[in-house]
Amino acid sequence: MPKKRSGGGLSPTQQAAKFLGVSVLAGTVLAGIALPAVGALGLAAKGSVESFDDLPATMKTPPLSQRTSILDADGGPIATVYSRDRTVVPLKDVSPYMQKAIVAIEDSRFYQHGAVDLKGVLRALNKNARSGEVAQGASTLTQQYVKNVFVEEAGDDPTKVAQATQQTIGRKIRELKYAIQVEEELGKKKILENYLNITFFGQQAYGVEAAARRYFSKSAKDLDIPEAALLAGIVQSPSRYDPVNDEAEATKRRNIVLQRMAEVGDISRAQAAEAMKAPLGLKVSKPKNGCITAVKGAGFFCDYVREVFLNDPVFGKTREARAKIWNQGGLTIRTTMDPQAQNAAQASIKDHVYKSDEVATAATIVQPGTGKVLAMGQSRPYGFKKNETQINLSVDQSMGGGMGYQPGSTFKPIVAAAALDDGMPANKVYSSPYRMAYPSPVAACNGKRWQNDPANPAKLENENESEVGPYDMKEATAKSVNTYYVQMISDIGICPVTTMAKKMGVVRADGDKMPQVPSIALGTQEMSPLTMANAYATFASRGMYCTPVAIESVSRRVGDKTTSMEVPKSTCSRAMSEKTADTINALLKGVVEDGTGSKAGLGSRPSAGKTGTTDERYAAWFVGYTPNMAGAVWVGDPAHKRKMTGITIGGRSYGKVFGGEVPGPIWRDMMSGALEGKPVENFNDVDIPSGIDRDRDEDEGDGGNRDDGGNGDNDGFIGGLVGGNNGGGGGDPFPTPSFSIPEGFWRGQGNGGGNGNGGGFR
Q: Across residues 489-518, what is the average pLDDT?
């Protein structure tokens, strides 16, 4: 039930208490406004003067809570959010009929009296005595305004609201003292303006502008006589006189207001009679509040903006202080969201994954070199119904996301960047057998070493039995060879990889630390699409990592003043040398040209990227970029229960899902649309000579026989950890692992990734 505002529908007992309060105050406050009613009522006001004098001299007037507008980078609307739907307007933008109607019905002597209307009090007492009931109130419009200030200060705390509206002598003392102050400081016109902007008109509308738009879909300055009378009548009891739910009662109340306007000479009796015959003429606009109303499928981006505001100290020292500013509203937030990129992301998602599918997809685009988040979308819409969610699948848990998803082989370029930055040649060759035990020991941070379990060593294998080395870095990256990258991390150590990941902003989505285990090379740590997109933007910007930003500017309106607020700035730092980044770009161009990501290619526009498919296909990824945009696409079950084998996605059946087959085309269509009309930029070309002479006898390498035909997407399992006797020559494209898992090996979501390798430090 809506809260009562401005004299709202009090019971006879409550109104009697109200009069008693006024009468008691009258004999104790100030000479010159004393009322004779105190003695007649037999009431004493002992202590009232002291309470009055002890009150602070100045009333705290909090900024009125208003709606906040969230805009895209071009200034187009994304969503409107508010704790109270209010738009503050100056008195000149309120219809003269509305001004007259509210004064006529609430306080017709407003311009003749001071803070208290002595004549009005006596008239009300006399009328109520004659009728035997409390039929008329006596609070002035100024007193009502002060009460509403108390309510506004209470916010949405029901206890504080009750305290602000309770019918007690103490509250009336406070109300009257501040009414006197307000009369002295503001003047009648400003009091009327403030009253019209603060009062509650029902239907979630606070202030006359919001009320005019809610009931009549027009501005307050355009209200005619019957419309103004209807709104003025609602104020006394917004629930009782709600025209949406009780047209008859609202009409009666409107006509009372019209009659009163005629009695005080604001309109003629003929005008009043004509207005009384008019229908209510409602043209109701439903409340549109929150990120659920966002356009362009940007509900999750809208929610991310809110989380940024509530979490960043630039907007206030404490979360409580930031939340207070957010709830007060009056903000205009221009974001980094590019409408073209957002439309492209949502269109691609809609074409490839249905919201009713067993799995979902999330996609994010960022701008290299600036950290600007350009687009953010997912297949399950923002909402509360079936196949909808409020969890932002693109971001970390601390920003409204979930626990994250294992990125699989999309983590391998980070390992390669660490190795290259440490001096490894780009044509480095490893034996890369089809199956192997994790090498041991492996150097970790702080002088520690990871040790495999000699009794039950953790093992891994490549996606296909045909993937047998030796391989150099370019071919191993294009084919996403697991054993190559595990040999690489075992060679350079774990610490350079976790250090490089940190420099690139790569963190676990749940906020936990990255473990010092070699399996991280295969993407076993759960991460968010925004994290991966922004990390790959580091490659696109030739080694410069920029923290993600979503807000360009914020202006805040308080009263009549609008000020600009400071906003978070992207912090850019060098994560790797330009040579390293250029080399990674060359490696990942090979992935989309003739590797596992060939279905993600952008034709004549240069692009680079990497596929990723987790163990047992709980998740599939494609993360890629051009010099001007970087994007990540994840597909999987957010609940982490459905393996993507024998599955239908977007109306198409798949025996097994690969990173290059489902996420790759989503990325391709998304980026094609986002980049349409944008300049075609080139990478800084780097020549990577082959590290292997393919003219030699293939049998000379320690990798054994090879069959370059391969099978499927060649995307590597995250863990791919097997032991036992699967044998070699079958070439099964989806081998069934046969192994016993060492105790304490897995961690995380239990899908074959984990943080450990069955060993430990020593």
A: 95
114-132 CB burial, b ≥16 within 10 A, e <16: ebbbbebbeebbeebeeee
Q: What is the 3-state secondary structure (H, E, C) of 299-316?
A: HHHHHHHHHHHHHCHHHC
Q: Which two tokens stand for residue 255?
A: 């006509």
Q: Where are the alpha helices (DSSP H) in 513-577?
A: 529-540
Stretch 154-182: mean pLDDT: 73
Beta strand 360-366 with 760-761 is unpaired
Please tell me the distance from the alpha carbon of residue 689 to that of residue 472, in angstroms, as a whole number. 10
> What are the structure tokens assigned to 693, written together?
């002479």
d(CA 87, CA 479): 58
| Number of helical H runs and strand E runs in the chain | 23, 21
Q: Residue 452 half-sphere exposure, CB side, CA atoms within 13 Å?
A: 19
Q: What angle (nearest 5°) sits at the alpha carbon of residue 197, between those of residues 193 and 198?
A: 120
- E-strand ranges in 247-312 read none
Residues 6 or more apart from 234 whose CB is under 8 A from it?
Answer: 201, 202, 211, 241, 242, 243, 250, 253
Ranges of beta strands (E only) in 470-569 are 471-472, 544-546, 551-558, 561-565
pLDDT, one tens digit per residue, over 293-324 is: 999 999 999 999 999 999 999 999 999 999 98
Q: Which amino acid is at 477?
A: T
Tokens (6 digits) for 728: 């070699």
DSSP 317: S
Strand, coil or helix: 486? helix
* 391 CB-near residues (< 8 Å, 6+ apart): 400, 401, 402, 638
Residues 6+ apart with CB under 8 A from 304: 373, 376, 392, 394, 395, 399, 400, 550
Secondary structure of residue 389 in the 3-state scheme:
strand
C-alpha span between 485 and 519 (Å, rounded):
10
3-state secondary structure of 529: helix
Q: Are strands 435-437 and 77-81 parallel, antiparallel or unpaired?
A: unpaired
Q: Which of 80-84, 169-173, 319-323, 647-651 has the lowest mean pLDDT?
A: 169-173
Q: Which residue has the tokens 């600007």?
A: 372
